[in-house]
Design goal:
A five-stranded antiparallel sheet has the order 1-2-3-5-4, with helices on one face. It folds into two domains: 5-106, HIT-like (HIT family, subunit A); 110-160, no CATH class. It has 161 residues and is α+β, with helices and mostly antiparallel strands. It is globular. It has six helices and five strands.
Length: 161
């Protein structure tokens, strides 16, 4: 496997805002967060390109990554409020760095409040945030950050109603 930006972070060749480290893993703040207010990346120090490349011997390592996610959620005080842990596999899923990693996402992003408000101000915030995401990448990537396109459209319709 070729060297990735994560390998460079592990080797301290480039800086990162590291929030946790042990012999097996490293966790740091995403430099391009897609889900504020909390977006952390949890990576194994062992280089594994995708989920498809995980071997039977890697079971404990992958379980450890989830243990780190739960530990960070507790330590940072958002475990009881809930959070998401996501691992993408392959380019079509949104994986951009081919070194497996968990995304630990927590807190209510501004668009969520907008969807629940269901008024013109809420719709404005929702569309502004979507527009901001679209300038950073594709429409699909922007929608992927929210939910499925179908679910997004239902939420949008509720705002328009």
């Amino acid at each position: 496997m070729s060297e990735t930006i994560f390998t460079k972070i592990i080797n301290r060749e480039i800086p990162a805002d590291i929030v946790y480290e042990d012999d097996i893993s490293l966790a740091f703040k995403d430099i391009n967060p897609q889900a504020p207010p909390v977006h952390l990346l949890i990576i194994p120090k062992k280089a594994i390109a995708t989920i498809n490349d995980i071997e039977e011997d890697d079971r404990e390592l992958v379980g450890h990554l989830y243990w780190v996610a739960a530990k960070l959620a507790k330590d940072m005080g958002f475990a009881d409020d809930g959070y998401r842990v996501v691992m993408n596999c392959g380019e079509n899923s949104g994986q951009t760095v081919f070194h497996i990693h968990l995304h630990l996402l927590a807190g209510k992003p501004p668009w969520l409040a907008a969807i629940h408000r269901q008024d013109e101000t809420g719709l404005s915030i929702l569309l502004t945030d979507l527009s901001h995401r679209m300038t950073k990448g594709s429409t699909e990537a922007a929608l992927f950050g929210y939910c499925t396109a179908d679910r997004f459209n239902r939420r949008l319709q509720r705002c328009l109603a």
